[in-house]
Design a protein that fits this description.
Strand content: 15-25%
Radius of gyration: 22 Å
Number of helices: 7
Order of helices and strands: HHEHHEEEEEEEEEEHEEHHE
Structural class: alpha+beta
Helix content: 10-25%
Distance between the termini: 8 Å
């Protein structure tokens, strides 16, 4: 039996990744003298870095990939995958939001290759989106010390709204590309007066997803005077075997799966783990088709999805942590979910197969 009521768990089946001025100071963009120019462009670096899979996919969707393959030079503040952990990716990838997505991403790009050592306190640099970012150099002892960049504040040492820490404790450092430099950061630098839909943060233990089992579950909100049910599925048989040798890919598989699930109406919070508690008992199965929720991601990451351009089974590319086979028919066919009924009282009718 095919049921739409539990499309909420469609997300548990598969996901592709898883498959990148103006200055108020005399100091300008200077290429690091101590670093050799890398063979890859900024766009290529982002695409090959497993921690920048979400950014790379968004850049492609926004049409900025070609710009960052050009001569530049550019400085890119590159949010890592975790930075996008509570963003509604389907909303960002919606063609109706293309202008907003492009503006958000352009707010992370500076014209010129800025070496951290040449940035001065109070220096202001415009982003490609036209918004100013101010540099703050903190010389405190301990974890606060470092170079920050973010929206200007009246207090020249205020880093409360800084969206990136370029050096110091918990900074990821800089990578030199053939056309500029890339700083990996742990936050998203939203332009002023810009909002975008958010979703619950990922839940569950990434380490719990292995070739022997990768269980997702969700407990949808139950109507009044009924007890909830829980639905779970083992996604491991629906994942290419090679992905389990790629820790970065598995983590991103789980993260994207949970983010996409949170965009589907009527869902519970998807957890990477089985239904919890002794009071749940198996109460049947139902079949769902998951692909609709993943279509925007598959289209952006793998260039396929939809009636006129269906995804095909294609070889994966572990070198770039890209597993587009997850969008193909081998892994996205309908699947049976286990319905777990709460045995202590009357169950929600949707719990019945």
């Amino acid at each position: 039996m095919k049921t739409k009521g539990f499309v909420i768990l469609a997300v548990a089946i598969a996901v592709p990744h898883i498959s990148r001025a103006r200055s108020d100071d005399a100091a300008g963009p200077i290429a690091p003298a101590s670093q050799s120019v890398g063979p890859m462009s900024i766009a290529e670096l982002a695409n090959s870095n497993g921690n920048l899979v979400v950014l790379s996919t968004l850049l492609k969707s926004a049409g900025l990939g070609n710009l960052l393959e050009g001569p530049g030079p550019f400085t890119v503040l590159a949010p890592n995958n975790a930075a996008f952990g509570t963003y509604d990716l389907n909303s960002l990838l919606d063609p109706a939001n293309l202008v907003k997505l492009r503006t958000i991403l352009e707010n992370h790009v500076l014209r010129g290759a800025y070496q951290a050592g040449n940035l001065t306190n109070g220096q202001v640099i415009d982003t490609l989106a036209g918004n100013p970012l101010r540099v703050v150099r903190r010389t405190d002892q301990g974890q606060l010390a470092g170079i920050y960049i973010g929206p200007p504040r009246p207090n020249p040492l205020d880093v409360s709204t800084a969206c990136a820490k370029l050096t110091g404790y918990k900074s990821a450092g800089v990578v030199k590309a053939s056309n500029g430099v890339v700083y990996t950061i742990g936050d998203v630098c939203l332009p002023p007066n810009t909002t975008t839909p958010r979703v619950p943060p990922p839940r569950g233990a990434f380490s719990g997803c292995r070739k022997t089992g990768c269980i997702f579950s969700t407990t949808p909100p139950a109507p009044p005077n009924t007890f909830p049910c829980c639905v779970q599925v083992d996604a491991a048989p629906r994942m290419p075997p090679g992905i389990f040798n790629d820790t970065v890919a598995v983590e991103e598989y789980i993260r994207i799966t949970q983010q996409v699930s949170s965009t589907i109406l009527g869902r519970g919070n998807l957890v990477q783990g089985p239904c919890q508690g002794p009071n749940f008992r198996a109460n049947g199965t139902m079949q769902i088709d998951w692909f609709e929720g993943f279509k925007p991601w598959c289209k952006a990451r793998c260039g396929c999805g939809g009636l006129f351009n269906p995804c095909k089974d294609v070889p994966d590319d572990p070198a770039t942590h890209t597993y587009c086979s997850l969008c193909g028919p081998m892994y996205n066919a309908p699947i049976d979910l286990r319905i777990m009924k709460y045995v202590a009282g009357p169950a929600w009718p949707a719990c019945k197969a």
